[in-house]
Amino acid sequence: MAAEPAEAESAPADTSAEEAVETAAEGADGPEESAESDAAPARAPEAEPEPVVSEPAAGAEHEAGPDEASAPDRAPEAAPEPEPEPEPEPAPVDGNAGRRRLKAALWPPRLSRGQLVVALLLFSLGLALAIQVRSTNDHHSQLRGARQEDLVRILDELDSRQQRLQQEKAELEQSLAKLENSSNQAKEAQEQTRKKATELGVLAGTVKATGPGIVLTVDDPQGLVKADMLLDTLQELRAAGAEAIQINDVRVVVNTYFTDLSGGGVQIDGKKASAPYRFTVVGNPQDLVPALNIPGGVVRTLESHQARATITQQQKVVVDAVVDLKTPQYAKPASK
User: Fold this and answer.
1) Looking at the UniProt record for this protein, which Gene Ontology cellular component terms does it annotate, in alphabetical order (predicted)?
2) Does any domain span residue 178?
3) pTM reported for the whole predicted model
4) What CA–CA distance (Å, rounded) separates 204 from 319?
C-alpha cells in the first residue's frame, strides 16, 4: 500500500524532465524557423489526415476508451449512383423504301371485273370519237377543196334526199293512222262480239244472270200440281218478258221439257223436282206480276187445285244455274 504513492510522485518528475528537453529543442530550432519564415511566405497548414478506424475483429470484445467515447459519430456513406443506360442507336435510313412501297402498290395491277369493263367501254368510246372526228375532218377537207359546181350538185342532192324523207314520213304517218283506225274498229267489233256473246249466253242458259225480277213459290201440299200447270206458268212468264228463269236448281232454256212421274212429282229436263216449286225470274216486275194475277191466269188455276202461289218482287235476283252447251249435230251457220 505504501509503494503506490511513490509511483505517483515519480510520474510528475519524469514529465517535467521531458518538457525541459522539448523546450531546449525548440530553442535550437527557433532561429532556423524564423529565417525560413523571412525567406519564404508562410505555407498554408496542411489538412490533417482523417483518422482511420479499423473495425474490430468478429467476436472480439472491445472496450470503448475515453478518446473513442468522445469521438463524433461518422457520417453515413453515400449510395453509389446508377450508371445511365446507353441510348439505342437509330435505325439506318433506307432511301429506296418509298420506291419499293410505291412499286408494290402499283404492280402487279389489281383490277376487278367492273373496272376492266369500264376501261374497255372508255377505250371503245375514245376510239369511236377519234374515228368520227377524223371522218368529219376528212369530209370538211373535201368540201373545202370542192369547186362551186360540185357544191351546188351536193346541195341539190341533199334537197332531193330531204324531199324523199318527207314523203316517206307522210306515208308512214298515213299508214299509222289507218292502222289505228283499223285497230279501233277491230277493238270495237271485238267488244260488240263479246257483248253479243254474253247476251246470247244468258238466253241460252250458259252463263249466270242477275237483275231485277220476282220469286214465285208454289206450295203443293196435296200433290195435285202437274207438269202442264208448271208449263203454263213458264209460258206466262216468257210472254210477260222474262229473260232468265230457274226452277229450283234447273235452268230453263229453249228446249226445257216437263214430265209427270208415276209415283207423284214432276221431272224437269230429266231431273226430279219436288214441291215447293221455286221460280226465280229475271225481268221487269211491273210486267211479270200482273201477268200472273190476271183473272183465270196462273195463280187462279193453282189455287183451284189447292196450291198456294206467293210472289215476291226484288231489285236483284240471281239465276246461277247453267246448262252445258251442246254442239249441234246437223245445224250449221248459213252464209248470207
Assistant:
1) plasma membrane
2) yes
3) 0.46
4) 13
